[in-house]
Amino acid sequence: MIDPFGRSITYLRVSVTDRCDLRCVYCMSEDMTFLPKPDVLTLEELDRLCAAFIRLGTDKIRITGGEPLVRREVMTLFRSLGARLGNHTANGGLRELTLTTNGSQLTRFAGDLAAAGVGRVNVSLDTLDPAVFASITRWGKLEKTLDGIFAAKAAGLAVKINAVALKGVNEHEFDRLLAWCGEHGFDLCLIETMPLGDIEGQRSDQYLPLSQVRARLRKNWRLEDTDYQTGGPARYFTVAETGGRIGFITPMTHNFCESCNRVRLTCTGTLYMCLGQDDAADFRPLLRGGASDDEIDAAIVSAIGRKPKGHDFVIDRRDEAPSVSRHMSVTGG
Ligand code: SAM
Ligand code: SF4
Question: Is residue 310, in this structure, part of any structural domain at all?
C-alpha cells in the first residue's frame, strides 16, 4: 500500500483495549472513562482486520493499548496472528509480531508470548525509583514491572525499554537508566511527551525536549551514530561504554513524518492514518454489517489514500487544549 506521499505503509499498530491497570500522569486522568464493551471489537473481528492488512502488504503488527495484556483472552489473538508469521516472502506475509506493554502482567504471559512467535517486547519504564514510579503511574508497583521485564528476558524475548522524558520528574535518572539497560542487555528509547488527550495538570509543565537530554547524556557517554532502524521514528545511537543502543523519539523537536510507514487501529475498529490528526475510517459498521473480504480490503486501500502528510503537534503555554483530543491509550501508543 502506497500513500499519496509515496510512503509504503507496512506497519499496523493495533490497540486491543483502551483499559489499563495503571494511570500514568501523562497518559490518562485518574478517573478516566472507558469505552462501553459493546463498542469494542471482538478478538475475532480484530483478527479479521489484521488478516486484511497482511493481505494488503502489512508485514509488521504491534499490539498495544491501553494495556494489551489486561484484555481477557488476548493470547488467542497473539496465537492466531503468530500463526501467520514466517510466511514472509517478497509477496507478503507477516514478518514481525510484537507488543508494547507496561510490564505488569509479563510474569504471567512472557512464556506464552514467546511461544506465539513474539520475539521482541517494548516495556514502558520511566524510572527505577519506586516512589517516582508510583507517582508517575499512580497505581503501579515498580517491583511488579521489573519482575515482568526479567520474565520476558528469561523467556528469550528481546526487551526494549521505553521511557517518557518528564521535566523535573525523571530527568536526572537517564544516566542510571542507560547504565541499567546496558547491564541487562536492553535497548533504551526516550520519548518526548505528546499533547494527546486531556489529563490533569499542564502538559507544558511535563515537556522536556530530548535535545537537552541528549546533550546532557553526552557528558558521560559516548553516543556513536548508527544507521540502526526498527522501522519506527526513533533515531538510534550505539552507547560505546555498554555496546547497547539508545533511541530518541522526538515528535516535538524533530518531525519524523516524511518516513512514516504506519497506521493505527483502535479497539473499536477506527483506523487513524496519523497519530496527530483526526481523520479516520470506521471499520466496525463494515465488519458488523456483513462486508466481504474484498469490501474490507477496498475500504483499507481507500483510507490509506487519505493518509495526511504529517502531524502538527504544538505545546503552547497559552493554549493548554491538547492538539489531539483522543488519548494515547485510545489510538495506541
Ligand atoms: N500500556 C502500554 C504501555 O504503557 O507501554 C501500552 C500503551 S501506552 C499508551 C504506549 C506508550 O505510550 C508508553 O510508552 C507510554 O509511555 C507512551 N505515552 C502515553 N501517553 C503519552 C504521551 N502523551 N506522550 C508520549 N508518550 C506517551
Ligand atoms: Fe496505561 Fe500505558 Fe497509558 Fe500508562 S502509558 S496509563 S500503562 S496505557
Answer: yes
- Residue closest by Cα to atom 19 of ligand 1: 27
Q: Are 252 and 242 in contact (CB under 8 A)?
A: no
Q: Cα(181) to centroid of ligand 1, in Å?
A: 19
Q: Which atom of ligand 1 is nearest to the CA of 199?
A: 23
With respect to residue 20, please indicate whether it lies within any of the assigned structural domains. yes
Q: Which residues of the chain have pLDDT under 70?
A: 87-92, 202-204, 231, 252-255, 312-325, 329-333
Q: What is the pLDDT of residue 258?
A: 84
Contact 305, 298 (CB under 8 A): no
The tens digit of pLDDT for each residue in 281-322 reads 999 999 999 999 999 999 999 999 999 888 766 555 445 556
- The pLDDT assigned to 308 comes to 86
Q: Evaluate whether residue 231 is within a structural domain.
A: yes
Residue 304 lies in a domain: yes
Ligand 2 pocket, residue 65 CB under 6 Å: yes
Number of domains within the chain: 1
Distance 182 CA to ligand 1 centre (A): 22
| Whether residue 329 has its Cβ less than 6 Å from ligand 2 | yes
Q: Is 67 in the pocket of ligand 2 (CB under 6 A)?
A: yes
SS (HEC) of 120-151: EEEEECCCCCHHHHHHHHCCCCHHHHHHHHHH
Surface-to-core class of residue 54, CB atoms within 10 Å of its CB (0-12 exposed, 13-18 middle, 19+ buried): buried
Domain ranges, residue 194: 11-331
**Residue 79 belongs to a domain with what CATH number?**
3.20.20.70
